[in-house]
Amino acid sequence: MADRFDLTGKVALVTGASSGLGRHFAGVLAEAGAKVVLAARRTDRLDALAAEIEAKGGEALAVSMDVTKADTIEAALAATIERFGGPADIIVNNSGLSRDDFFIKMDEADFDLVMDTNTKGVWLVAKTFGGALVKAGKPGSIINIASIIARRVSHTLIAYAASKAACEHMTRSMAIEMARYGVRVNAIAPGYFETEINDEFLNSDLGQNMKKRIPMRRFGEHEELSGPLLLLASEAGSFMTGSTVVVDGGHVWG
Q1: Which residues are tagged catalytic?
Q2: Which domains are delineated in the chain?
Q3: What is the mean pLDDT of each run of 10 residues along the chain (254 residues)?
Q4: pTM exceeds cut of 0.70
């Protein structure tokens, strides 16, 4: 059974790999045997992560990518093909951000930035890298990182919530279109995991009070996303497409 989780010989793209969950996902995929393409705007961090992966015997390529700009995604695809001889077999759409405010006070530019990054960016990356898989006649797996905020009402997160709900629905639409090509499309919807984006909030009084409302009474550990990631990336999840795996300690139902 362990062989079904083995990613040896596969190439995996991870967007937003410079920090947080993206950095963790890249490490997990590399440890499972995949050659990893690390994508983000902050290439200094990517270079350091690539060096760490290669020091452990893996292979990694750092590429500059802004998921809101198609030309940077296309350049990353070209670099992937040049380095590894073909497109990525596994595509982890992890890039995302938030701008928090009451919706009647939110700046239009902030709303557009969140939607462009979290929604349009998912589409652009899946379109470019997924399209390359179809062109090459290769099967693959696209994993979109959604959020339980797509399913829960929360104050001051209207743009983020809307973008992640769109991400989850796009996952299902992509799945039914790509199934005929052997490309599976699924999503992971994490609950609250501490990252650079939310650590200040989670450690505040408000964050600690929210933790008490999670049925498991704690925030998630990054390693607890490794299993769901490998399930969707590997042959272990070969009959899964259009699914969203919720990893939240029961929060969405709490």
Answers
A1: 160
A2: 2-242 (3.40.50.720)
A3: 90 97 98 98 93 98 98 98 98 95 95 98 98 98 97 90 97 98 98 87 91 94 98 98 97 87
A4: yes
